[in-house]
């Protein structure tokens, strides 16, 4: 029988964080015996939902279908895509291929997923999905979760951990998922546990990529990692459990916001009402952080594609400090394995965040009184920024292995080999850290 597998995704954990973590009580012990893959190259865009879906499918977004955190709209109900925005790719049905959890179920194993992206609607096992009622939308939180979570999570955990949440921000989400996952390890002993821990990502967004607040959060993650180790010991499963702790992406400090939709408006591609709200468009940009995806009203019209491409080239000549690369849909698919309903993908220069607003200045610097964004972000091309690490330890892991680089596409094959399941569509191969 395969050993159990516990996966902790510490959102926005970076390889550079290992220096501080190596001096902390729990990570200092973990790192001595763990296999470590540093600088794992992400997929494009470096957003949480596409990356976490690649982690459990082993394929790029052109095949699994999750190309962004959110579904594109010119006027989203809540445009804050990094924290508590609207219309995310919450539901598991959005994934177009077989997942690691599907494979474990098919092999007769048990699964628990806690705040793992793109799992809403999964009723097998214990599933507390990452989902929330849209702010100002009037949704009943309990109804949202009854539809999205497994029935046993609703009966055993909703009232204890989730029901009190007021949904004005995501501070509670940073903590209640950890408590639910720890209880599941002790009481249910699942064969596979996937837990997404968001607090480091949240901290970096608010305070910047580096700083005292980030260091304090890393110290908190050290305690959390230790609590998971102790929970497995308490459950009597220590010798029967492999652990993985990994990050999904890095972050980069924001220097400038480039509101390309404002430029589109000035060039006649977006029309607005008297209040400055978009009412019609030929093309609009939907931000993915440091990159953006451009959607056309007539996406199948070659003449419109060429017209908008010429407009984008004109914008790049006018704003070379902010717009680095224009991908056609064909180039994005061929070079980055990224395919969706968009006609173009835009990559900003390092530190340039794309805004979604229409009736605002085209460029807002981070030191401007108009700047009302976070201090750091991601969504950039994987050639940029600090990279996440992958740490593994347990009975099936070669202790002390150190690899200087890796690829996100190889994460799922590593999980699959540890869980002894087969996902034939996977594009990568396991990291060379496993015992024969």
TrEMBL record:
Superkingdom per UniProt: Bacteria
Molecular functions per Gene Ontology: hydrolase activity
CDD domains registered for this protein in UniProt: Enpp
PANTHER family linked: BIS(5'-ADENOSYL)-TRIPHOSPHATASE, ECTONUCLEOTIDE PYROPHOSPHATASE/PHOSPHODIESTERASE
Name of the protein this chain belongs to: Type I phosphodiesterase / nucleotide pyrophosphatase
Organism field: Caproicibacter fermentans
């Amino acid at each position: 029988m395969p050993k159990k597998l516990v996966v902790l995704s510490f959102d926005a954990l970076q390889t550079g964080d290992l220096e501080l973590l190596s001096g902390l009580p729990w990570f200092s012990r973990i790192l001595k015996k763990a296999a470590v893959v540093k600088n794992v190259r992400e997929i494009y865009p470096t957003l949480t939902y596409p990356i976490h879906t690649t982690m459990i499918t082993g394929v790029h977004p052109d095949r699994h279908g999750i190309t962004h955190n959110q579904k594109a709209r010119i006027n989203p109900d809540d445009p804050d895509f990094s924290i508590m925005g609207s219309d995310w790719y919450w539901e598991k049905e959005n994934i177009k291929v077989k997942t690691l959890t599907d494979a474990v179920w098919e092999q007769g194993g048990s699964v628990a997923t806690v705040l793992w992206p793109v799992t809403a609607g999964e009723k097998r096992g214990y599933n507390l999905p990452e989902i929330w009622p849209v702010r100002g939308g009037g949704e009943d939180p309990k109804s949202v979760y009854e539809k999205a979570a497994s029935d046993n999570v609703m009966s055993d955990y909703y009232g204890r951990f989730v029901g009190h949440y007021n949904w004005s921000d995501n501070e509670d989400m940073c903590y209640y998922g950890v408590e639910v996952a720890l209880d599941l390890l002790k009481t249910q002993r699942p064969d596979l546990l996937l837990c997404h821990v968001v607090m480091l990502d949240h901290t970096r967004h608010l305070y910047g990529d580096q700083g005292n607040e980030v260091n304090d959060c890393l110290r908190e993650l050290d305690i959390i990692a230790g609590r998971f180790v102790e929970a497995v010991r308490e459950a009597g499963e220590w010798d029967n459990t492999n652990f993985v702790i990994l990050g999904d992406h890095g972050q980069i400090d924001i220097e400038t916001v480039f509101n390309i939709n404002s430029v589109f408006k000035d060039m006649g591609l977006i029309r607005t009402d008297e209040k400055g709200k978009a009412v019609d468009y030929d093309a609009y940009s939907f931000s993915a952080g440091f990159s953006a995806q451009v959607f056309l009203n007539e996406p199948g019209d070659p003449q419109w594609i060429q017209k908008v491409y010429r407009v984008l080239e004109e914008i790049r000549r006018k704003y070379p400090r902010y717009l680095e690369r224009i991908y056609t849909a064909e180039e994005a698919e061929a070079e980055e394995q990224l395919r969706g309903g968009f006609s173009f993908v835009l990559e900003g220069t390092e530190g340039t965040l794309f805004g979604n607003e229409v009736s605002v200045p085209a460029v807002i610097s981070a030191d401007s009184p108009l700047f009302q964004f976070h201090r750091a972000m991601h969504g950039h091309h994987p050639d940029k920024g600090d990279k996440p690490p992958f740490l593994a330890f347990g009975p099936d892991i070669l202790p002390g292995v150190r690899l200087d680089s890796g690829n996100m596409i190889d994460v799922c094959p590593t999980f699959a080999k540890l869980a002894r399941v087969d996902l034939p569509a996977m594009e990568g191969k396991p990291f060379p850290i496993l015992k024969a």
